[in-house]
């Protein structure tokens, strides 16, 4: 099938609209007509090859919402016309230990939607049926896209490690962090937000934060020693990690979901003496995504978004790169 897509030919090169052929539809794949697609910082990282794994030409976009227009003969549980979401992964092997135990996102052969695969900044995208997640009817489809990557990325550690009685800190009130605050508040946690921008203090409170501190104020952070059961870091910049780890209660956990490219220095005794942990995770499994969408629909949780027509994709990337997005950008298909 012929389709249209915004293509990056090389790092930092402007995206251009092209027509291409997706080839024959796989027996277990669905084809989705894109309605909206979130613009994630990971799209920017892959476009610029910041992680060294990009393959060009590349069609970016991995927070897709749209309707199924075609389905292979072995597709199960989905139907043409159904509205679904596709996130960071478009497939996995479905037979390894990780897939068979429900951790499909940890499959060593998981197919990233935008690496060696055509993503959602296009008229159509394809995915294995297990990775096309039905969208709850109650959820506003125009703004739901960022939940499919950023949302599940912060929801999964909360669902795994947090309890309603916990005190949770969220580092970074941006595209990921503002959703983490919303989810943690809906969980019933006492939520503290850390942001480098004082202009975001009031907004962080509006998202559900009970307390807000500057992530640049090491003295204030040190005064919070022993405060948190769970600390979620959503940033990709260097922090005063010793001070942050010290804010954890005994048995507390620092969970990293922001792609920090520099090593995080850790003093062993800061972990040993308080029996603290450091962990990380990538997005989530199909079940995690479905659970997150159900929770978001039940609690009316959506990202704060700005919308661009997809034809203004280069302008949207420029706004994201400049750090001006508040807080997630969604591109509306206008082919």
Please provide a written account of the structure:
It is built from 11 helices and 17 strands. It is of the alpha/beta class and 335 residues long. It folds into 2 domains: 197 residues, Quinone Oxidoreductase, Chain A, domain 1; 130 residues, NAD(P)-binding Rossmann-like Domain (Rossmann fold), CATH 3.40.50. α4 runs parallel beside α5 and α4 crosses α10.
Task: Itemize the secondary structure elements and their pairings.
Blueprint: E1 2-7, E2 16-21, E3 29-39, H1 41-47, E4 64-71, E5 83-86, E6 89-91, H2 97-100, E7 111-112, E8 124-128, E9 133-134, H3 141-144, H4 150-161, E10 167-171, H5 177-187, E11 190-195, H6 201-207, E12 211-214, H7 218-222, E13 228-233, H8 241-246, E14 248-256, H9 268-272, E15 277-280, H10 286-299, E16 305-309, H11 313-321, E17 328-332
Parallel strand pairs: 10-11, 10-13, 11-12, 13-14, 14-15, 16-17
Antiparallel strand pairs: 1-2, 3-4, 3-8, 3-17, 4-5, 5-9, 6-7
Helix content: 25-40%
Level-1 CATH class name of the largest domain = Alpha Beta
Could you tell me how far the N terminus lies from the C terminus, measured between alpha carbons in angstroms?
16 Å
What proportion strand?
25-35%
Please state the structural category: alpha/beta
Mind describing the biggest β-sheet? 7 strands, mixed
Low-confidence region ranges: none
Number of strands: 17
What are the secondary-structure elements, in order, as H or E?
EEEHEEEHEEEHHEHEHEHEHEHEHEHE
The CATH superfamily name of the largest domain is: Medium-chain alcohol dehydrogenases, catalytic domain
Radius of gyration in whole Å, from Cα?
A: 20 Å
Tell me the overall shape.
globular
- Count structural domains: 2
CATH topology group of the largest domain? Quinone Oxidoreductase, Chain A, domain 1
